[in-house]
Amino acid sequence: MSVIPNSPTLVAEENIEKIRAVVEIAPRVHRVILEKKDRLPLQGEMFENDKGHQIVLKQKLGDGAMGHVFLTEVDGRSVAVKTEKHSTAMLPMEIKVLLITMRENCKHFCRIYDYGNVRREYNYMIISLLGRDLYRLRSEMPTRSFSINTTTKIALETLEAIEELHSIGYLSRDVKPSNFAPGLRDFKEHKTIFMFDFGLAKKYVDRENRKLKSRGEVGWRGTVRYGSLNAHKRLDLGRRDDLECWFYMLVEMHVGEVPWRFLTDRAAVGKAKIHAREEGRANFFFKLPKQFDTILQMIDSYAFETRPEYRQIKKLINEIRAENNCPNHIHWDWQTDESQYSELTEAVSVMSDMAILAEQGATNVTDRG
Ligand SMILES: Nc1ncnc2c1ncn2[C@@H]1O[C@H](COP(=O)(O)OP(=O)(O)OP(=O)(O)O)[C@@H](O)[C@H]1O
Question: Which residues form the signal peptide (predicted)?
């Protein structure tokens, strides 16, 4: 089974530095361990966790920049296992975020069942199994876009997810469609959109809950297509930047593309984002409800420390829903017959679509090259 590559994220430079430091400073023996043992697990492999569960890494659900996500079963429940090489050391941040969201009863985050490492070869965390991510779901639509009903409902769900993350003191710094997915109907979670992948997450408040000041120029973070103008300027990112990425993601979902879809050069993408606000503005908003323009103006007006007006933005989205007579009950564009059908098999069976594979390979470029 071939696997669709996820649009990869650039690893936070500080993490690479940390890994480099360990390799450079540590004694030779440590280097040997890293070189010899540090690895990603393979499909079909098995390990035993501290609770004595035999975890079999079944089908691969997805590939990320840093590792693989597999399907497994724990106590008869299908769950996902995210893995990375031990030295990558990005999972600890994800685990930290998920433990807090679970403690705070956040609605839009996976449950974390277990985490750890296997002989220091690879790290893992076992989390709730989700459906196909929003990038894949959109790509599979005949029009490659979502209706106004689905787009605005996604907008409300994902904004709520971002607000929850911000409310626990964290930024995502990598908001993009492939980092959101609906839950599964088998678990009665299909009406909720979940946010995942916190490899680039960062705390924006200190221990006393005071907002941290901008650190100025810090280097690129995130994925080029959805990155904020501040990210293009390599500036420190705040809550407003998560919302800017969210905005580009919604435009792509409803229109089917963003104007910089075919650009690969980071500077050129930055220029296109400015053009979309200036001479290209009418064109950019042509296929979108007028409220989109207001929302971008709001996001653009925020300073680094500003708390985004989540409620006001939700009101504008609900206004779009009312103007378009969107029904109150959720019916996603990708949803088929409500009744018997199980999404559990769907979640793991549509990965070999070559058309999507080609599309993602060609357009989901980040600055890693
Ligand atoms: N809980 C889950 N349930 C089902 N599929 C998942 C789950 N988590 C991740 N996936 C799949 O695996 C892919 C990669 O996961 P994730 O984005 O967490 O990895 P990453 O290495 O951080 O990737 P990125 O390159 O986006 O930084 C996702 O796009 C998704 O398709």
Answer: none
Confidence class of residue 207 from pLDDT cuts 50, 70 and 90? confident
Beta strand spans in the chain (E): 46-48, 54-56, 60-63, 68-74, 77-85, 112-118, 122-128, 170-171, 180-182, 193-195, 202-203
Q: Are 230 and 245 contacting, i.e. CB atoms less than 8 angstroms apart?
A: no
The answer to ipTM > 0.90 is yes
| pLDDT greater than 50 at residue 154 | yes
Q: Within 10 A of 267 (CB to CB), how many other CB atoms are there?
A: 11
| Ligand 1 mean position, distance from CA 63 (Å) | 6
Asked if 225 contacts 269 with a C-beta cutoff of 8 angstroms, the reply is yes
* Ligand 1 centroid from CA 68, angstroms: 8
Could you tell me whether strands 60-63 and 54-56 are parallel, antiparallel, or unpaired per DSSP bridges? unpaired
Average pLDDT over residues 13-40: 56
Q: Could you please state the CATH topology (level 3) that the domain comprising 13-128 is classified under.
A: Phosphorylase Kinase; domain 1 (3.30.200)
Q: What are the binding residues for ATP?
A: 82
Whether the predicted pLDDT of 174 surpasses 90: yes
- What is the spatial distance between Cα 171 and Cα 200, in angstroms, rounded to a whole number? 8
286's CB contacts (< 8 A; 6+ apart) are none
Cα separation of 112 and 110, whole Å?
6
pLDDT of 311-330, one tens digit each?
Answer: 999 999 999 999 999 999 98
Residue ranges covered by each domain of the chain: 13-128, 134-334
Nearest alpha carbon, ligand 1 atom 14: 64
Q: Which atom of ligand 1 is nearest to the CA of 90?
A: 22
Which residue has the least CA distance to atom 25 on ligand 1? 8
What is the whole-number distance in angstroms between the Cα of residue 255 and the centre of ligand 1?
A: 24
Output the ligand 1 site: residues, CB below 6 A. 6, 8-9, 61-62, 64-67, 69, 80, 82, 110, 127-130, 133, 178-179, 196-197, 199
